[in-house]
Design brief:
By secondary structure, the chain is mainly alpha-helical. It is built from five helices and three strands, in the order αβααββαα. It starts with 11 loop residues before the first helix and ends with a helix.
Length: 129
């Protein structure tokens, strides 16, 4: 499910890309699953169809989705391309931190803390459902 924050700093088309890649990473979307047409998704999200089209173009360029004329857009056999949309920036920031002298242990501690916090958030969400 894609959630858009119109007041956020991340461009809306990028939020759509991240939402689709997140659904792939979670196993919600699988290879060859059809995704909503740009106009349909735009209407659901209350945004301009050109914004969704821009996101779909970028995802197709990255090999995450593919389109068939008259059929729609589908999730590609992506390997880990969808994951790389998230991990690429993480890897870059990790390299920057290491070059700045942040010890490996400190980075590992941050990663463990984030995982623990995320696990707690998920448990809280499940209780609220």
């Amino acid at each position: 499910m894609i959630v858009i924050d119109v007041s956020g700093r991340i461009p809306i088309f990028e939020q759509i890309c991240r939402g689709i890649c997140g659904d792939i990473a979670k196993g919600i979307l699988k290879p060859h699953d059809r995704i909503p047409a740009a106009r349909v998704l735009a209407k659901e999200l209350g945004i301009n169809p050109n914004t969704v089209a821009k996101a779909y173009t970028e995802l197709e360029r990255d090999g995450i989705i593919y389109s068939r004329v008259g059929k729609g857009s589908f999730i590609a056999e992506h390997g880990n391309k969808a994951d790389r949309r998230f991990t690429g920036e993480f890897e870059q920031k990790t390299r920057e931190a290491m070059q700045a002298g942040v010890p490996k242990e400190a980075l590992a501690e941050i990663l463990e803390r984030v995982y623990a916090e995320t696990a707690q958030d998920k448990k809280g969400d499940e209780r609220n459902d």
